[in-house]
Each structure stands twice: as structure tokens, then as C-alpha cells.
Amino acid sequence: MATASRTAGTTGTTGTTGTGWFRRFHPAGADAPRLLCFPHAGGAANTYHRLSAALSPDVEVVAVQYPGRQDRHREPVRTDLRELAGQIHAELPGLGAAPASYFGHSMGAVVAFEVARRLTVTPPVLFAAGRKAPSRSAQERVHPMSDEEILADVERLGGMDARQLQSRALTRMVLPVLRGDYQAIDTYTYEPGPPLACPVVVLAGDDDPMTPVEDALAWQAHGAEGGEHHVLPGGHFFLDAHHDRIVQIIRDRLR
């Protein structure tokens, strides 16, 4: 997954279908299981283009497009994570009745969890990658953040390379989205409740500066029996380096 695809300011991919909250990039078979994917902070739907290509046509990948980025750049970024989850939940009937498993990376994992909590029937499985369990959530940054602080944090996590960070045009597009998303995840507080009725598959990087492995493994307490975990070498964006392995994990689980 190219580094540029991690940012909200990247150009949309040709072949994309869907408007509003959901995007599809590749065709899927009539009986293909559906995977609803939730981007990380600062990310957009096309973060999951590569995953969609790898899983098509056996899995129907649908990516959530949060407000404030790409073709929704004129809409305000949501700074309340529960509000964001509630709005996504309200739009789910537009996808049809087919059940979907959920995949979320970083902030997206918590958004996916909060959407799943609102469902009458939970997803078959929740994949939670690169994020502390909701019960381990804590504010990590002081808001409001300066531009310099935001960009330094992005660089620390490996979300953009040095050349991109020096592009004023790109940073102007990305900063408002990152500022809003950071506020949303940092002000989120977990409200205790029963675990999901589905298992959780935990994916973690062993050198992630944001997510200690023990905090990632705590996701298991938020799901039903039958969950599993995979700790892979790498930092916060370990998914990039282990793309083929992630694809296989998803295939095996959905199969």
C-alpha cells in the first residue's frame, strides 16, 4: 500500500462506485461475503483499494468514506467519534440486507466497534488492527494541536514520508482532517457494556509506538469466543509490509 494512500488528500481511484458514505472498487461474486472497512485517522476510503483488489471477486470490500476528505471535502470533519459511528450506522440500510464483517485500522477499529455495538445482529467477525482495545483507550494528545505537532505525530507513526511532509499543498489538505480525527479519537471514552456477540481478530505490530501489544490483545475481552490474534513485525502501519499475510488471514476467517 503506497504511503500516499494513507492520506486524506490523495486522489480518488478510477473505477470507484458509490456515493455518500460507502465506496466499492472491484466486482465481487454474487455469494461473496462482505467486508466493511473503516479507515484510520486522516485516512480515506481508497486506503482499502489494494485490499479490495486482492480479495476480489471472492470478498466484496466496501470502504467507508468519512466526511471531510476527497469527494466529501466540503463536509465538516466529525470530531465526535460516537456521532460518527451513529451516522454510519444510520446509513447501513443503504447497503442492503447482506451481513458484513468489519475491518478497522487504528481509529477505524474503534469506529467499527461502536457501529457494531449499535446493530441488532452483530457482524460475523470484527478485525481490529493497530489500535488499543476500547477499554484501554486514553487521551494521547493535548488539543488543540498546532500544525507542527500534528505533522510530527504523523511522521512518528510513519503515515507520510518526508517528501510529502514538505508539500505545502498536501499538508493544507491533510491537516484539517487529521486535526478533526485526532480530536475524535482522543476525546473518545469507552462506555462499559457487554461484549460483541462476534469474535474479534486482533492484528498488531510488535513495534507500534501508539499501540502496545498487551493493549491490542485486550480486544479479546470485547468479543465472543473464537477470536484470535496475530502480532506481526512492524510499527503502526505494519499492514503495508504484511499485505499478503493480512489478505490470507481475512480469507481464512471469512471462508
Instruction: Give the overall average pLDDT.
Output: 90
Runs with pLDDT <50, length 5+? 1-14
Please tally the β strands and state the result. 7
CATH superfamily: Alpha/Beta hydrolase fold, catalytic domain
Q: Please count the helical segments.
A: 9
What is the beta-strand fraction? 5-15%
Instruction: Count the domains.
Output: 1
Instruction: Give me the Rg, rounded.
Output: 17 Å
- From the 3D coordinates, which CATH architecture would you assign? 3-Layer(aba) Sandwich
Percent helix: 25-40%
Please tell me what the overall shape is. Answer: globular
Would you tell me the structural class of the helices and strands? alpha/beta
| CATH level 3 topology | Rossmann fold
Sheet with most strands: strand arrangement: 1-3-2-4-5-6-7
Top keywords for this entry?
single chain, 255 residues, alpha/beta, Rossmann fold, seven-stranded mixed beta sheet, 7 strands
Task: Give a written overview of the molecule.
Helix content is 33%, strand content 13%. Strand 2, helix 1 (49-55) and strand 3 (60-64) form a beta-alpha-beta unit. It is globular. With 255 residues, it is α/β, with parallel strands linked by helices. It has nine helices and seven strands. The chain has a single domain, classed as Rossmann fold (3-Layer(aba) Sandwich). The model is unreliable at 1-14 (pLDDT under 50). The protein has helices at residues 49-55, 81-91, 107-117, 147-157, 162-165, 168-186, 213-217, 238-241, 243-254, and strands at residues 22-24, 34-38, 60-64, 100-105, 126-129, 200-205, 228-232. A seven-stranded mixed β-sheet has the order 1-3-2-4-5-6-7, with helices on both faces.
